[in-house]
Amino acid sequence: MSAMIAKRSILAARPATRAVAKSMPRGLFVRPSVVVQKKLIARAESESSESSGIDTEKLVKDVQEKFDSIENKPQFALYVVGGILGLFLTSQLLGFVNKLPLLPKLFELVGLSYTAWFTYNYLLFKSGRQELLQDIEALQSKLSGEEDTPAPAATPPAPVATPSLASTPAPAATKAE
To answer: What DSSP letter does each residue of the chain carry, written as one string?
Structure first.
């Protein structure tokens, strides 16, 4: 009996826990737990550039050299601003299109269809994988400026004979006697 009185006095003292206690079966009472947060203090230490794998000093130096080698800096700045503006407008346009009710599902269907087509044509069979690797290597050599390896060419179309005026024989002249 004294336990019941103690429970009621605790419930009366804490009105916030009263609703919790009422929803529980009658002989059970759960004390609210105290949450202790531990603070994690981390300190950044400088590491040598060799351990991270990226030489930041060399990267910054390369970027500065590339920027210094640009002859028309205002045009470059205009291109950068135009690129950032283009990315912003593209993001806004995609956000708008995503809010339209039917288009996101349509785009998802188109994306899934293209993924299935790409997998079937380039990944499923060995000949398709070889063709994809050749295309990638050709693109890499084209972008890097190395034209040593020619792009894989499909069989050239057969030459079509077109009549020209120079190759047509002139009509034979007949003499009337």
So the answer is: -HHHHHHHHHHHH-HHHHHHHHHS-TT---PPPPP-PPP---------HHHHS--HHHHHHHHHHHHHT-S-HHHHHHHHHHHHHHHHHHHHHHHHHHHSSSHHHHHHHHHHHHHHHHIIIIISSHHHHHHHHHHHHHHHHHHHT--SSPPPPPPPPPPPP---TTTSPPPPP----
Single-letter code of the amino acid located at 177: E
d(C-alpha 136, C-alpha 139), whole Å: 5
How does pLDDT run across 64-100, given as a tens digit for each residue?
999 899 899 899 999 999 999 999 999 999 888 888 8
* Residue 52 to residue 63: CA distance in whole angstroms: 19
**pTM exceeds 0.70 for this model:** no
- Return d(Cα 113, Cα 106) in angstroms, integer: 10
Best CA proximity match to 48, nearest among 39, 40, 57: 57
